[in-house]
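Appendix B, record 7
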Amino acid sequence: MTVLHRGAAVLAVPLFLSACGGPGERVSDPPPGLIRVRVDLPRGGFLDCGPEALAAVLRLNGQAADVKEISGKICDRASGGTTVADLATYAADRGLMPRPARGATIETLRASLERGVPPICMVNATPRTFHFYVVVGVVPGRVVVADYDGGVRIFSEREFAARWRGTGRLTVLIGPAEVVRGIPHDEDAWLRELEAAGEPAQPKESLSGQAHAALGALYEAKGFLKLAKFSYRFAVDRDPGQVGAALALGNLLYGEGKIEEAAGVFRRGAWADGSCANNLAWILSEHQGKAAEARAWARAAETQAVALSMPWFQSLDTQATIALRLGEPAEAAQCWEKGGDAIPAAPWTG
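Structure tokens (predicted):
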């Protein structure tokens, strides 16, 4: 069983891939009261735990569902399985509402079951592989998931929570729209928990650089700046071409007064982004006393910005400031004059 990352985030949900696994205590003839919503879990092949779970939920909603057919459409065997986004897209195509619920809680599962919607949860089968379970019951201290041939598997709540946490308690609720919308779940509660603990919302290896960058922007907009910095840093680590993430991370660090760290981040994006190069030039000049190197980066920023049709007068303002530091007032005046001429010519001014 292998799990690799795939693509960018969909519905702001990390695209973990799920293989198969089967821990927990199996009960072939579950006693009354253990199951809140009964589903028929069909048996598929290797890597088909996602299609199996989806087929069970589709059948519960009165739809015909063949595991082999679903698997052929959504299971990426080359990459290692199925994503939550795959399940959501397929369910939506069948007329049901998929609601990804990252950071779901035991109370989320219980509330969903009370409304007749069995949650599909992704958990760790091993530290590097994941598995989908259809939760059919939550009783004191235990979580019950569907198994083949009418049986169930029973986890202690503690064991289930430990496995579930590894995916960010990633869950998808699938059912009629009017029912699914009414299931209480506050995703920001999970984010607040992580922000307070100083923990990332997802492992670096679980997403592409593009997906980490998109999540970083989302977290920053919500005010979760620790999470944003994790995601921006992961984005650049995964993909050095994510220079927008480098700029955003550097700006956050600079705003916190972490000048040296900000300079290092800007340097990672300065090769391709005029704003990173310009910000690096500013730090070199105004904080580190390296005017000569700063001038080179400010000029590089102008070249990059012009090529990208970005606002380039900012780099000229930086060049003017550096010229003053170097005792060249005439050069500074020329830069400011050139920068002033550039403002009306910029395409974004209309």
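Remarks on this record: Strands lie at 25-27, 97-100, 120-126, 129-139, 142-146, 152-156, 171-175. The two ends are 55 Å apart (CA to CA).
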